[in-house]
Amino acid sequence: MYFYQDNVLPQGEGFGWHPHMSSRLGLFRLIVGDGDHMTDSRTRPAMVAQKLYEAGRD
């Protein structure tokens, strides 16, 4: 799951969550959302749960 506002790491070729870190996973399903992992897990838990559901389905 990748949140657009989650900017803990600087974005760039050798940094960031996606695609730098996610490229190490091999085959994966990229689920994106607007927000960040700290704020939205507290203020919009239903949205985070929906994204986790989307990530787990086949």
Automatic annotation (TrEMBL):
Q: Which domain of life is it from?
A: Bacteria
Record's protein name? Uncharacterized protein
Question: Which species is the source of this protein?
Answer: Cohnella rhizosphaerae
